[in-house]
């Protein structure tokens, strides 16, 4: 018991209040701002001179403001001359952006939060929103109270599923098979919205042929979901007047995450549940500004406002404004950055507010790659595990309480944030730090405040032009696209798909022709259990911010097993066991959870300092979006031999 108590003493992360630089003996020591900035800039300059601009990469921050992300991507493209900029969007919802963009030409969720309160059917697919998105879930509960029926599709019977009319407990990694079976049933039952499909989509015949083999019985064999439950969901979704299809990382964090997203979008197109008030598809984003980071161009393939880098007209507009030349090719994704660290092609990284040493799949490999860099600069509010590896550490302000600016949530709503606290010690605004580094590297940027940055962004992004700070304050936020300063935007996207005039309707939405592809890390006799990961209500990401605060709900990290598996392995609640995958091992106590089915285990990434779950996860990445398969690792558990035996 004493050993267990000692193991569960969590690391307390102290706020960074002054810059740090690494001495030749390997120690990080306190430094003044002038020395730290000079060291950071010198390393970036040397990298660019010796290896070229593409040897540099920026990791921007999904918790910082839109304005910070805009300046960060501008620094990458203008000062360093590369498109190598990305963020933790790659770790979670990049497949959502890719899938939505491929279908509709826009990477945002199609509906507002309010619409889920006034819909008739809610499908929560791969989403424990009650724990992972508690604010959104309050809107879901209002919808249920207003008469909406909810169905939950998830390998676990989660806290969210407890509110559902039905729970479809599918096998991990079989989402496409289930979606195809639902689509086939809708087709065979004559429930397709034929008018919408004919007018607004392409590829229906090919899609119908693709899903034809997925009968209800065939899907039951693969997914583990009873045929009757599949049929009931298909009919409920297709016959609802309005329906919202929502998903989270249970869909995206797979080696075929983008294909999973396309499979769900197909169902909305098949039934006409998109482009109308109350009917849409909604990826629920986790970080407070992960949507905004992508909107601001902190991704390797898009300029601010989701304008494609390969489009000459878009590039020229930014080149004129920024007085620079933008590379006419995509930069590296976060996944490709880590691969390039391995090969030596990537030599320097500027990491703002991210902790990839603990958030990346196969974390031991991630740390080794970060250590191989010639120059690592980390800008953060805490000395994270990633910051501990840095050559220069720059203390920043907390975006949610010490900074002015804006953020963008999952419903594309841009909202003002305002500084309420004075930052501690020598901590400085993120934008001020980036501009100081830009100045040392030959670019004299004069942003007097966050609004100045925002107005530059508005001048370049038509989707944001109508969002002045005054209008954002007046309306308590506005949703993009908002191209006009005198009209309010629609709460939902793609109403154009319902237009009868082809010119007003615009491009048709193509069905995604995707195939079922099982998880990469197969279970076998040596690794017989399927580990899936997720979040808990009481904690946040790698626990750096939330771990310092007490919560009556927080119980630390456990390996959750169903009662049948616990009995089969002869383990009891609280007993320490060794958990191993093909990549590494950790020890963790057992938690017995009735919401799991035999063969399925569950862990979170919230407590890596005591149980580093990402030692177990696999770096099997979606080829389109680059997101790793956090949700499907093969593991085994072993009883530990007591020390006294």
Question: What structural keywords apply?
Answer:
disordered N terminus; 33% helix; six-stranded mixed beta sheet; single chain; 645 residues; 27 strands
Q: From the alpha carbons, calculate the radius of gyration and give it in angstroms.
A: 24 Å
Count of extended strands: 27
Integer average pLDDT:
93
Largest sheet: 7 strands, mixed
Structural class: alpha/beta
Which percent range fits the helix content? 25-40%
Q: How much of the sequence is in beta strands? A: 15-25%
Biggest β-sheet: strands ordered side by side in the sheet? 2-1-15-14-13-3-4
Number of helices: 23
Q: Report the span from N to C terminus.
A: 16 Å
Apparent shape? globular
Low-confidence stretches: 1-7
Quaternary class = single chain
Give an overview in words.
- With 645 residues, this protein is an alpha/beta fold.
- The strands form seven sheets. The protein has a seven-stranded mixed sheet, covered by helices on one side. A six-stranded mixed sheet has the order 21-23-22-27-20-24. A five-stranded parallel sheet has the order 7-6-5-9-10, with helices on both faces.
- Strand 11 (302-303) and strand 12 (307-308) form a beta hairpin.
- Helix 2 (33-51) packs across helix 19, helix 3 (66-79) runs parallel beside helix 19 and helix 3 (66-79) packs across helix 20 (450-460).
- The protein is globular and about 70 Å long.
- The two termini are 16 Å apart.
- Residues 1-7 have low confidence and may be disordered.
């Amino acid at each position: 018991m004493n050993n267990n108590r000692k193991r569960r003493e969590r690391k307390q992360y102290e706020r960074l209040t002054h810059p740090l630089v690494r001495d030749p003996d390997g120690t990080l020591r306190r430094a003044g701002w002038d020395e730290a900035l000079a060291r950071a800039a010198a390393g970036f300059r040397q990298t660019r001179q010796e290896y070229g601009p593409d040897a540099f990469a920026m990791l921007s921050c999904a918790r910082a403001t839109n304005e910070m992300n805009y300046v960060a991507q501008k620094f990458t493209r203008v000062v360093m001359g590369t498109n190598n900029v990305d963020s933790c969007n790659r770790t979670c919802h990049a497949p959502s952006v890719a899938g939505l963009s491929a279908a509709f030409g826009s990477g945002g969720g199609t509906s507002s939060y309010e619409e889920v309160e006034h819909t008739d059917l809610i499908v929560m697919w791969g989403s424990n929103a009650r724990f992972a998105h508690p604010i959104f879930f309050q809107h879901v509960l209002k919808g249920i109270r207003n008469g909406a029926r909810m169905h939950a599709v998830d390998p676990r019977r989660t806290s969210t599923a407890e509110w559902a009319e039905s729970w479809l407990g599918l096998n991990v990694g079989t989402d496409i098979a289930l979606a195809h079976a639902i689509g086939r049933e809708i087709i065979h039952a004559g429930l397709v919205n034929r008018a919408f499909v004919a007018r607004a989509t392409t590829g229906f015949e090919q899609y119908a042929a693709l899903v034809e083999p997925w009968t209800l019985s065939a899907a039951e064999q693969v997914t583990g979901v009873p045929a009757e439950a599949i049929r009931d969901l298909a009919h409920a979704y297709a016959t609802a007047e309005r329906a919202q299809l929502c998903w989270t990382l249970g869909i995206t964090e797979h080696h075929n995450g983008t294909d999973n997203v396309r499979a769900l979008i197909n169902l909305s197109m098949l039934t006409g549940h998109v482009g109308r008030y109350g009917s849409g598809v909604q990826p629920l984003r986790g970080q407070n500004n992960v949507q905004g980071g992508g909107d601001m161009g902190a991704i390797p393939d898009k300029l601010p406002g989701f304008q494609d880098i390969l489009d000459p007209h878009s590039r020229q507009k930014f080149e004129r404004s920024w007085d620079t030349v933008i590379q006419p090719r995509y930069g590296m994704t976060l996944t490709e950055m880590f691969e390039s660290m391995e090969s030596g092609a990537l030599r320097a990284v500027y990491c703002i507010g991210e902790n990839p040493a603990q958030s990346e799949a196969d974390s031991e490999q991630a740390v080794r790659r970060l250590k191989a860099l010639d120059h690592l600069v980390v800008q953060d509010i805490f000395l994270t595990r990633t910051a501990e590896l840095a050559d220069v550490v720059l203390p920043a302000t907390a975006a949610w309480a010490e900074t002015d600016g804006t953020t963008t949530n999952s419903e594309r709503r841009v909202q003002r944030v305002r500084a309420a606290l004075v930052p501690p010690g020598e901590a400085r605004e993120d934008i001020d730090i980036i501009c100081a580094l830009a100045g040392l590297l030959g670019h004299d940027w004069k942003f007097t405040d966050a609004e100045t940055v925002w107005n530059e962004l508005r001048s370049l992004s038509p989707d944001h032009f109508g969002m002045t700070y005054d209008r954002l304050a007046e309306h308590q936020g506005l949703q993009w696209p908002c191209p006009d300063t005198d009209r309010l935007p629609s709460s939902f996207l793609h109403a154009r798909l319902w237009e009868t005039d082809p010119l007003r309707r615009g491009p048709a939405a193509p069905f995604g022709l995707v195939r079922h592809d099982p998880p990469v890390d197969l279970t076998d006799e040596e690794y017989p259990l399927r580990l899936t990961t997720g979040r808990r209500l009481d904690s946040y990401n790698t626990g750096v911010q939330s771990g310092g605060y007490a919560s009556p709900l927080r119980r630390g990290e456990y390996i959750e097993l169903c009662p049948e598996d616990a009995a089969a392995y002869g383990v009891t609640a609280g007993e320490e066991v060794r958990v191993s995958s093909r990549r590494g091992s950790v020890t963790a106590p057992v938690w017995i959870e009735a919401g799991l089915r035999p063969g399925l285990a569950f862990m979170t990434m919230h407590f890596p300092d005591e149980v580093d779950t990402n030692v177990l996860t696999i770096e099997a990445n979606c080829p389109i979006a680059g997101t790793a398969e956090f949700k499907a690792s093969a593991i085994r558990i072993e009883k530990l031999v007591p020390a006294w035996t």
